[in-house]
């Protein structure tokens, strides 16, 4: 397994490290290398497409912070459209 490139100040390769837009409860990848080909790289190592992963992370983030989001009037995460 490669060390986390972000910790070395380099962009990540697979998009597994995310941050969140708290205004809409949506995950997004931290700095990503060659975003056009990220799904090809993910597929090679058995990971789902990036948008599917980000949706999973957004849903988990919503559940963990549900009370905060409901108080702000956010009833669920904003999900990416997938094929």
Keywords:
83 residues; 2 strands; 10% strand
Tell me what the structure shows.
The chain has 83 residues and is of the alpha+beta class. The chain contains 3 helices and 2 strands; from the N terminus they run ββααα. The chain has a two-stranded antiparallel sheet with strand order 1-2.
Poorly predicted parts: none
- State the secondary-structure class: alpha+beta
Helix content range of the residues, please? 25-40%
Strand order of the largest sheet: 1-2
Count of helical regions: 3
Proportion of residues in β-strands: 5-15%
Total beta-strand segments: 2
Biggest sheet descriptor: 2 strands, antiparallel
What characteristic shape results from the CA principal axes?
globular
Instruction: Measure the end-to-end span.
Output: 29 Å
- SSE pattern, N- to C-terminal: EEHHH
- The residue-averaged pLDDT reads 94
Question: Radius of gyration in whole Å, from Cα?
Answer: 14 Å
What's the oligomerization state? single chain
List the helices and strands and how they pair.
Layout: E1 18-21, E2 26-29, H1 38-44, H2 50-64, H3 66-71
Antiparallel strand pairs: 1-2
Structure summary:
The protein has helices spanning 38-44, 50-64, 66-71; strands spanning 18-21, 26-29. By secondary structure, it is α+β, with helices and mostly antiparallel strands. Strands 1-2 form a two-stranded antiparallel sheet.
